[in-house]
């Protein structure tokens, strides 16, 4: 599959890679396989009507809608929102313990009429086994579907991927594992430094081979990272347990909500992940606390899921520049008050909203939050019951500016967006810009932003890392000089 172009016939062949027993199970029980008339009957079922009712506990400042639900979208393991509000949804009826072949896919859901409810759905990746966390960046969708890390592109504009590339294999296990895709490698997210950060569960990484031939093994959980082309793979953080996702701040600080081990003293923990740190699980945390990096907090039992570091203009200051994490066990989405403390943070956990089984959270370039809920499901296929849904939340009265067409924007316009107030747009603009050769005018403009103390630090950092990625070693003289500025050095 590496680098292969897919025609419409080969797309059809993907759909047919389903065993006879799996096809029977889905036809008999899943709304994913229903025709339009059968879907209408499904809509009238009492359990489906109940599934569509909701009562989030977001405060009165928010307007909430049910963005997507079965039969179009179900079994939502993760979401990634593009800046225009197209949401890439990982759909996996196997959950964490199932073994049915050929049932996963990536669906895009989009609200085209502005009512907060998705009305356009496409099977972007018609079939992919064990889809977990993905990240749409500048036209490329990066996806963890253990044991693989792959990329997908739609080059003809029909909303369905036609170019797929497998970057690496060995990231945990999928349905071939005795426990299915449980405790596996789940999340992938790009930072403003251009690295892909991969959240590795405690079943570890098996001799993963990068595209440059580098081989990396990790016994237990942690965070790995690589370049977008699959080169320079390395372990970034060692010995977490089973975190699902990593949230990345605009200043390249990594945070995660780590999973409990159901006893023996390791509870649900919030980590501030520092490069090359050892978080202590399972060997150090009980008897050698001084030999590993301390967690920010221990919150007892729980199951950490998706996370987001929010930095968008459509939120009041008390909700913005803030970490949010999801928890499966409690069903809550938590936010954190963060106070700088001894090189890290002191945190206070608050509840953003209640869900039934919170799985993921993301935001688009219009400051719309997307909240994924595994409502109605447990750990594998639920035999026809509606499972999973996505809510959308936004601040009442907020009128977002028009989202730019970054694909067609001129280089100097992209620099303006890199210096804008939206973290999601900054990253996308940066990566679109880096698809071009940087002109001298662009370089000078980026340097000016980096040096301008009146510009917000988040934007200066974005400009700095754009220079580094675009110029490579030629940027080093400037970067060394900029380190003399204490306002950006910290």
What structural keywords apply?
single chain; 490 residues; alpha+beta; five-stranded antiparallel beta sheet; four-stranded antiparallel beta sheet; 10 helices; 27 strands; globular; disordered N terminus
Oligomeric state, counting identical vs distinct chains: single chain
Task: State Rg.
Answer: 22 Å
Average pLDDT across residues?
89
**Main beta sheet strand tally, sense and closure:** 5 strands, antiparallel
Tell me the fraction of residues in β-strands, as a range.
Answer: 25-35%
Number of strands: 27
How would you write the strand order of the largest sheet?
Answer: 1-10-9-8-7
Low-pLDDT sequence parts: 1-29
Number of helices: 10
Helices and strands: which structural class?
A: alpha+beta
Helix content: 10-25%
Cα distance, first to last residue? 43 Å
Rough shape?
globular
């Amino acid at each position: 599959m590496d680098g292969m172009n897919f025609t419409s016939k080969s797309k059809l062949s993907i759909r047919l890679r389903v065993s006879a027993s799996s096809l029977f199970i889905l036809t008999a029980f899943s709304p994913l396989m229903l025709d339009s008339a059968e879907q209408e009957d499904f809509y009238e079922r009492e359990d489906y009507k109940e599934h569509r009712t909701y009562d989030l506990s977001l405060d009165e400042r928010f307007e909430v809608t049910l963005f997507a639900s079965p039969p179009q979208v179900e079994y939502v393991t993760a979401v990634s929102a593009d800046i225009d509000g197209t949401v890439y949804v990982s759909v996996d009826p196997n959950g964490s313990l199932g073994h049915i072949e050929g049932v996963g896919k990536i669906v895009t859901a989009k609200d085209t009429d502005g009512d907060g409810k998705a009305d356009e759905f496409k099977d972007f990746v018609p079939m992919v086994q064990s889809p977990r966390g993905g990240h749409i960046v500048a036209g490329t969708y990066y996806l963890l579907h253990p044991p693989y890390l792959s990329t997908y592109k739609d080059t003809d504009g029909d909303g369905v991927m036609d170019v797929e590339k497998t970057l690496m294999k060995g990231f945990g296990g999928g349905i071939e594992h005795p426990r299915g895709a449980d405790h596996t490698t789940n999340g992938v997210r790009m930072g403003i430094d251009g690295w892909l950060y991969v959240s590795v569960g405690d079943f570890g990484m098996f001799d993963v081979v990068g595209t440059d031939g580098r081989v990396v093994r990790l016994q237990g959980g942690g965070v790995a990272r690589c370049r977008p082309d699959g080169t320079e793979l390395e372990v970034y953080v060692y010995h977490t347990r089973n975190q699902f996702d990593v949230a990345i701040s605009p200043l390249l600080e990594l945070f995660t909500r780590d999973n409990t081990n159901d006893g023996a003293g390791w509870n649900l923990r919030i980590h501030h992940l520092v490069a090359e740190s050892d978080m202590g699980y399972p060997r150090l945390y009980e008897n050698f606390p001084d030999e590993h990096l301390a967690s920010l907090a221990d919150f007892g039992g729980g199951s950490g899921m998706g996370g987001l570091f929010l930095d968008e203009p459509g939120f009041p200051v008390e909700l913005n520049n803030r970490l949010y994490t999801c928890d499966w066990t409690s069903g809550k989405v938590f936010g954190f008050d963060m106070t700088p403390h001894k090189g890290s943070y002191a945190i206070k956990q608050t509840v953003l909203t209640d869900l039934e089984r919170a799985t993921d959270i993301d935001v688009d370039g219009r400051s719309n939050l997307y909240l994924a809920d595994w409502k109605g499901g447990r750990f594998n296929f639920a035999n026809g019951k509606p499972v999973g849904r996505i809510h959308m939340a936004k601040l009442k009265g907020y009128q977002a500016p028009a989202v730019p067409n970054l694909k067609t924007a001129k280089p100097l316009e992209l620099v303006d967006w890199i210096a804008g107030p939206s973290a999601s747009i900054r990253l996308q603009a940066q990566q679109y810009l880096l698809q071009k050769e940087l002109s001298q005018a662009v370089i000078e403009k980026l340097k000016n932003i980096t040096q301008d103390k009146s510009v917000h630090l988040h934007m200066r950092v974005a400009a700095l890392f754009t220079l580094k990625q675009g110029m490579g070693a030629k940027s080093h003289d400037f970067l060394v000089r900029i380190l003399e500025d204490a306002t950006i050095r910290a």
